Amino acid sequence: MSFSPEELLRYSRHTLLPEFGIKGQAALQAGRVLIVGTGGLGSPAALYLAAAGVGTIGLVDFDTVDETNLQRQVLYGTADVGRLKVDVAASRLREANPHIAIEEHHGALDASNALRLISGYDVVLDGTDNFSTRFLVNDACVMAKRPNVYGSVFRFEGQVAVFATPGGPCYRCLHPEPPPAGLIPNCAEAGVLGVLPGVIGTIQATEVIKVLTGIGEPLIGRLLLYDALRMRVRQIALPRDPACPMCGDAPTIRELVAYDPIVCDVDPGSDHLRQGYGGPPKLQAKAEDPGLQKEPMEPRGFSPGVGDVHEDDMTVDELDQWRREAHPHLLIDVREPSEHATSRIDGARLIPLRQLQSHVKSLPKDRPIVVHCAVGGRSAVAVAMLKVQGFDARNLSGGIKAWLKAGLT
Q1: Which of 173, 247, 264, 373 is catalytic?
Q2: In 209-341, beta strands by DSSP E
Q3: C-alpha torsion sign, points 213, 214, 215, 218
Q4: Are 38 and 59 in contact (CB under 8 A)?
Q5: 5, 148, 199, 285: which could form a disulfide with 163 (CB 3.0–4.6 Å)?
Q6: 3-state SS assignment for residue 368
Q7: pLDDT at position 277, please?
């Protein structure tokens, strides 16, 4: 591969590295990387891969920029709210490095296009935030024989691994099947530290560079665990599972499985959550060297704030009593319309959390406002927003799941 004088200057800090040199930079220039999801993980990864000089970067996303993204998705700014993420991301990356090619793939990755898209690239970076797409990416990567650089984040913790390489494990060696609906909360419910996706996404970009150039030791057969609160980085061995339904000795999955999108809401007191889904249920880690731990990070429940009772909380029994006694109040549901369509509390006014601020002027201050979501995470945010603006706001503890569990109507 040939480089222009401008490119040689731009990449000079790479080519000065003896382990990297012109050969490594040429490998990046020839490389094709598909980034699935341009959100919290995809944003920092895409920026660093573009800056590094990866020759072709493909972007897959169907979503638009939302104001809640701006706390962590560094490709976007306030003026981008409402725009398609792929459009904004492509523009930013071309500005960051005009010497590379950006390929835009608008729409969701699904069973009809995953194998075709992934087969057109050398490496896939999984920046998805849901299990249905994560399994789809994994399976297509195994079928297409393309390395899958996986990353995930939850609250203050993250994971990174390289899957679907010859002789190495795939994501199903870690989790053979998606978790049951309702087991794992998403960022909207549980929250995520804004810098965490930046750390994990940057590690993913590092692994992509190592895979493309052949330098170093990629995270193949190892799962890296990052704990931001305790600033601890650990690894556990993750060998290929011979019984894996996807990459094992006798695979049973022969075609892509289109899992239904999982609604990730969860009871904050759930034992399932406290046991965690971040670690493999049947993983047998091997302490092959001092850097490999015998156990994954200790599972912990929610930190104070989600699921705990506070002075602004109202129990479902208290709300039921208010309703039976016709106590003046306004009940607001801050979930998404798709969630509201499947279950609702009679009389609740639907205002998705992302739209709440634009409806503030229409809300009453002469009576209490009770806010609910699925389990209490988004509604706690809504209550905080309303209280600072002078509203008497209460959070329905446990959300609609607690309401339905109590058999209330």
Answers
A1: 373
A2: 222-227, 232-237, 292-293, 313-314, 330-333
A3: positive
A4: yes
A5: 148
A6: coil
A7: 36
373 counts as catalytic: yes
Chain segment 276-319, per-residue pLDDT in tens: 333 333 343 333 333 443 333 333 232 333 333 456 789 999 99
**Domain count within the chain:** 2
Is residue 300 assigned to a domain?
A: no
Four-residue CA torsion sign, 185, 191, 197, 199: negative
187 included as an active-site residue = yes
Same domain, 269 and 318: no
Answer whether 345's CB lies under 8 Å from 403's CB: yes
Q: Which domain holds residue 378?
A: 313-405
H/E stretch holding 105 reads: strand 101-106
Looking at the structure, do residues 288 and 388 belong to the same domain, yes or no? Answer: no
Whichever domain contains 256, its CATH number is 3.40.50.720
Say which amino acid occupies 112: S
Give the global pTM: 0.72
Out of 141, 173, 187, 264, the active site residue is 187
Q: What is the pLDDT of residues 3-44, one digit of tens each?
A: 999 999 999 999 999 999 999 999 999 999 999 999 999 999
